[in-house]
Amino acid sequence: MLRWRRPQLPEELIIAGRPVPVVATRRPMARGVRLRASAIKGRIEISLPPRGGEDVGAALLKAHHAWIEAQVAKWPAPIPYAPGAIIPVDGAPVRIDWQADHPRTPVLAGDALRVGGPLSLLSGRIERWLKARAIADLEPATRRLADQLGRPLARISVGDTSSRWGSCAGARSGDGARIAYSWRLVCAPEWVRFAIVAHEAAHLVHQDHSPAFHALNRQLDPRAGEARRWLARHGAALHWVGREA
Questions:
Q1: Residues 50 and 29 grouped into a single domain
Q2: Are residues 160 and 65 both part of a single domain?
Q3: Using one digit for the tens of pLDDT, what is the confidence trace for 145-162?
Q4: Model-level pTM?
Q5: Angle at 11 between CA 24 and CA 87, to 5 degrees
Q6: Which domain holds residue 109?
């Protein structure tokens, strides 16, 4: 007796010599199969219904191969933390100047980031330095606007999110709001970073995106719209800082 075998979706595609992961996710509410090329995550995403759909997903990958190639060609290049690599800090190019006998704590000297110690620990040292620099800039700026608005804050933190640059939770709580940012904002120009701070500060007053929210956001930062356009053009590249591939 012959049994039908469910088609297998590939875990990876090779596009112009570049390995691209393929991630399939079942969505409880999905009614069909959807294909997406994520420039931020650097992968092809296939959304499947609760049951089945693999055959349709495999057919979509084949039928849209040229489209996938075109999308991947537009993705940013990875920027690993390696000696001599150029990473963005405050929107400016900074060269990683690694020498084993340099101080182990990274030091920004002009357009060079001097750092020493074992090469195997370089990536961790640089990323921790970037995160510390991010919170050192974002926290006082956020507290300054919160004080200006007369709103309490419970906590400010940084993480590595791919869906949003900032988030505000608990604004209605008497204990104060919790605001979280992507540490990768430290790679963007200061005025772009401040625009995200102003956006989240406006959410301390308005927990929506109503006209009143946007009016307050523009009051706190007249360059809010310009910053959104900058992130639309350059934001994806910030997610490739520190990637090997």
A1: yes
A2: no
A3: 999 999 999 999 999 998
A4: 0.88
A5: 95
A6: 86-127
